[in-house]
Batch of 2 targets.
Target 1
Amino acid sequence: MTATPPLPAQLARLYIRPGFLLRRAHQISAALFEDECRELALTPAQFGVLTVLKSHPGMGQSSLARALGFDNVTVLRVLRGLQARGLVARATALGNKRNVSVALTARGAAVLEKAQRPAERAYKRLLAPLDKDQQAQLIELLRLITGELEEDARAAFVPPGKK
């Protein structure tokens, strides 16, 4: 059995950078979610859109994008996929063709309901390597980073009801 050669210093530095680790953790999180929600053919972004729309039916597309920290192009792409599957309906506001509202369909609400258990399993799988205190600490640290650096984000995050 041969030993693995040490990484070049440049690669070792790259692999411990917070951005690299956060991106890799996000990839793993998405893979776990998609694995658990395979039979529903649901992505984390789609789950987020359906979840926000359940609590805020008829929300405008731009507000929906901000509620998830998506840019307008991303939310439009996700909505088109959901609309093609009959999970959401989009309607142009009367008198303002630029204002588009979005709502869950009955089918979308049913898929969201079916996704709750698999989404929870994905969340538990993601945090399984950590004990309870570490899980709470990770969530708190991620909230601190995202909260303190929000104004540097490429897309604004504005939860519904916040200005």
Target 2
Amino acid sequence: MLVLLIIFIVITPMLSKGISVDMVKTKNPVKMQAADKEDAVLIAVSRDGKTYLGTNAMAPDQLPQKVKDMLTNKLDKTVYLRSDSRARYERVVEVVDNLRAAGVDTLGLLTEQQVDKSTKPATTPGAAPPAGQ
């Protein structure tokens, strides 16, 4: 059991692609399965305004050349942008402008599904389960 625990502890951080940001929550997101592919171009804007291409931090003005190089031989030229919900909008617009300068025509803005609290069954902590059948 200890060996399995150690394996999970080591592998879990490798499963997430890019840096983690607290993305904006929406009611009706569009699924973008291509963003989960290994060769997808992911750009993230963190809460403090730093820009990341994958896991590498870089200035937004350096993005056009790097992204252009990454998209050179790809059929799907979509770039995916993950932004922290508390990031300054100015930083996000700056990244989008730089991506447009790189010739990116298709930009996917990644969000998370908003959980509707009214549809969840109400349970009180410590309450006994209903009498069984």
